Automatic annotation (TrEMBL):
It comes from the Bacteria. This is CopG family transcriptional regulator. Pfam families: RHH_8.
Length: 100
């Protein structure tokens, strides 16, 4: 955004259309996401992404190691690895982590 764009945003804030700059940006992003909702939904399905919070527990990782699998953690949101997971176990069980 250029300085004139930011000035226009500030005018809209001063005129009461938005609470602050962040409010306008949040609304603009949400409008664009709504506009492209079908494309996003298809991409999530095609890429087999978890949406929201994905918790990776020690048991999941131990099971992957025992079966010779390596996990690909792919999430739109937040990925959390349990506190009781050692770095060695995580390295042995997780092939990749993608968080969008």
């Amino acid at each position: 955004m250029g300085m004139v764009d930011i000035g226009h945003v500030d005018l809209l804030v001063q005129e009461g259309f938005y609470t602050n700059r962040s409010d306008l940006v949040r609304m603009a992003v949400r409008n664009q996401l709504a506009l492209h909702a079908n494309v996003v939904k298809q991409a999530v399905a095609r890429r087999t992404l978890t949406v929201g919070l994905q918790h990776v527990g020690r048991e999941d990782l131990e099971r992957a190691v025992a079966t010779g699998q390596r996990l690909q953690v792919q999430v739109v949101g937040l990925a959390r690895i349990a506190d009781n997971v050692t770095p060695e176990l995580a390295s042995a069980a997780i092939e990749s982590v993608t968080v969008l």
